[in-house]
Design brief:
The structure holds two protein chains of two kinds. Chain A contains twelve helices and no strands. By secondary structure, chain A is mainly alpha-helical. Chain A starts with a helix and ends in a 5-residue tail after the last helix. Chain B is mostly helical. The longest helix of chain B has 41 residues. Chain B is flat, with a radius of gyration of 26 Å. The N and C termini of chain B lie close together (9 Å). The chains are: A mainly alpha, B mainly alpha. The interface between A and B is large, with 104 and 110 residues.
Chain lengths: 290, 348
């Protein structure tokens, strides 16, 4: 009986292999067409960004670049570099702080549960999904009273606080998978809540920190709404807002806008290309059910 | 989990031990307190204030938090505004187009990749499909704005491919869609509603149908998020064991039937997650439409998030902007609260 089954299984597998081979070119064709779709906007941005001002015209958008003088990149960099720096000064501290707070919260919510802690966690997590329009006005006023309005520290504060739910979620899911026996053993040896965290959990958390770090870096770098509402001064705004202004301005050549889009996208794009494995993990973990 | 595990310890041990554990629970709460307070203020108190403002008379630069009479008048005004009605229509139409396209494309790519796991170059394809997810909506908006510019982009292909020459030669107009600048609303159902309920039809102050200008925006959003859908499904497909697949094959299912009748039903929880996440992104969509199309001709590409932003930060009609923000919040909460309950109940 099993022999028949196994033979059938083998036949089915072989059949699948043969049909795979026969249709291979068709699959490649589909994949290549899909790839063209996904790469098209990238091509438009890079290609036209590289064109010189006199070569860039609406009717030759798809023509490949012929000169190699850097096109609009130099001017785009000159216009956007202060904002790139603002973004960097905002995103690095905000990512680090929100990751650490998320780690502590996640540790407590997963390993030091008390009555009602699951409910508190759910209430906190809801903050990740709200449309920020529903808090913008009071938040901006609160930032003004704290004298953080219009500043990078103000943006860091906002991103850390609204980042708490998701960083807590990812760390909580991560720590849930660490065996509780490990903590029990430490507790019997007299370790407290704080020492258990520092000596046992923190050293085990490096992969979670990488995942959360990438997730938060991408989220905060790509933010638009907080940047545009908390910081009114164009010189002090993050790069996403500067790029939007650049794109809407009629006095700027089109190649500069395209080059600017590439520059603004570069940090998160590089992180994706270099660390895509962790990027995907963070993305999946951020969807509540890891 | 941890409480259950500690129970024997507690019972066996003496009173001081029990007190330590009690103290530790208190400690846990104390350490959590700053974060909980921050969320209480920045999420819940601020939502409360926004709701208050939405009920107030504050519609100039000078703050006025007295409650407007009659109650909810701002909401009534808002729902009667042609612009806000168009925003709700746009949200519905955009959501339907965007979610359908993203799930079909994302699931299709996931099946193709899953089926061809051993094919050379698969990681390159997969990583390319997900790449847009790493970019900001602003970058996406800037690029797609030019691709769907009527003077350039996609429309050039109609010339390059000779379609327009063909059309002109046969006496027809050349194909030059206005994309995001097109004010047309197709599939209008105003008349149908009027024949059912004239009173209700009178309250509808806009063309109820599909604004053509939303299609390019939905395509751009699909470009950005279909890779996410693919990655979610692929993550689920890797957890399905080979035995399940073999069993389906032995039962005589071909590859397509195996996916349709076995794999996709197993991945139902993922479908739910994907659906809820895309839906809440769609209800909140702001940066992409703002950069790519703005409010559009006749508010064809306007969305509630842009409405709120403009009422609050340009028109200084704070009560109106807040009312729209509360409507957005309610729409999101209606899908997210059950989702969180379902997700978190499952794990315990």
């Amino acid at each position: 009986m099993t022999a028949i089954l196994r033979r059938r299984e083998a036949a089915a597998y072989e059949e699948a292999q043969i049909s795979n081979k026969r249709w291979r070119w068709l699959f490649y064709l589909v994949f290549i067409v899909a790839m063209l779709f996904y790469l098209m906007p990238i091509y438009v941005m890079v290609n036209n960004g590289l064109k010189d001002a006199q070569d860039v015209s609406l009717s030759t958008m798809w023509n490949p670049v012929t000169t190699l003088s850097g096109g609009g990149f130099l001017e785009a960099w000159n216009r956007l570099s202060p904002n790139m720096l603002n973004s960097l000064l905002m995103v690095v501290p905000a990512t680090i702080i929100s990751a650490f707070l998320g780690s502590i919260n996640g540790y407590l919510f997963s390993k030091w549960k008390f009555r009602g802690s699951d409910l508190l966690f759910t209430i906190m997590l809801f903050g990740f999904f709200i449309p920020y329009q529903a808090i913008l006005l009071p938040m901006v006023q609160f930032m003004q009273t704290l004298r953080l309005y219009g500043t990078i520290p103000g943006l860091i504060t906002v991103h850390v606080i609204y980042g708490l739910p998701v960083t807590t979620l990812i760390f909580r899911n991560f720590y849930t998978n660490i065996p509780t026996e490990l903590l029990e053993a430490a507790r019997v040896d007299g370790a407290t809540l704080v020492t258990t965290y520092l000596r046992i959990m923190l050293p085990l958390s490096v992969p979670a920190f990488v995942v959360v770090g990438i997730f938060q870096f991408t989220n905060i770098w790509n933010d638009f709404i907080f940047g545009v509402t908390v910081v009114p001064n164009p010189q002090a705004q993050p790069v996403t807002i500067a790029l939007n202004n650049l794109s809407g301005s009629f006095s700027v050549d089109w190649n500069v806008v395209m080059a600017g889009a590439v520059i603004a996208a570069l940090p998160t794009a590089l992180i994706y290309i270099l660390l895509s494995r962790y990027f995907v993990r963070g993305m999946l973990a951020g969807s509540v059910k890891g | 989990m941890s409480t259950i595990a500690t129970e024997p310890l507690v019972r066996a041990a003496d009173a001081p031990r029990r007190r330590t554990i009690f103290n530790e629970r208190i400690q846990s709460f104390v350490v959590l307190l700053p974060s909980l307070l921050a969320i209480a203020i920045f999420v819940y108190a601020f939502i409360g204030i926004t709701f208050w403002i939405s009920l107030s008379n504050w519609r100039t630069l000078r703050p006025d938090l007295t409650i407007r009479e009659p109650l909810l008048q701002t909401y009534a005004d808002m729902f009667a505004m042609p612009r806000f009605q168009a925003d709700l229509r746009n949200t519905l139409v955009f959501t339907l187009m965007f979610i359908t396209m993203s799930i079909l494309l994302g699931l299709g790519l996931a099946i193709l990749i899953d089926h061809n796991r051993k094919l050379l170059g698969i990681p390159v394809f997969r990583n390319t499909f997900l790449f847009p997810y790493a970019l900001s909506f602003i970058v996406t908006g800037v690029a797609w704005r030019w691709i769907f510019n009527p003077e350039t982009g996609i429309n050039l292909f109609f010339d390059i491919l000779g379609i327009n020459t063909l059309l002109v030669n046969s006496g027809m107009e050349p194909l030059r869609p206005g994309w995001v600048t097109d004010p047309t609303v197709v599939l209008q159902i105003n008349d149908i509603i009027a024949s059912i309920s004239p009173a209700f039809a009178d309250s509808i102050q806009m063309k109820l149908g599909v604004p053509v200008a939303l299609i390019p925006v939905a395509i751009a959003a699909t470009w950005q998020l279909s890779g996410f859908v693919m990655a979610m499904y692929l993550g689920g497909m890797t957890t399905i064991s080979q035995d399940v697949r073999e069993a389906a094959r032995i039962d005589g299912a071909n590859e397509w039937q195996m996916y349709r009748k076995v794999i996709i039903p197993i991945l139902k929880p993922i479908t739910i997650s994907v659906f809820v996440i895309l839906l809440h992104i769609s209800l909140k969509i702001f940066d992409l439409t703002f950069t790519m199309a703005g409010v559009g001709p006749g508010f064809a590409t306007d969305v509630p998030a842009i409405f709120v932003f403009e009422q609050m930060f340009k028109a200084t009609r704070y009560n109106l902007g807040s009312a729209a923000a509360i409507v957005m919040l309610i729409l999101v909460a209606v899908i997210i609260v059950p989702y969180l309950r379902y997700s978190l109940k499952d794990e315990s």
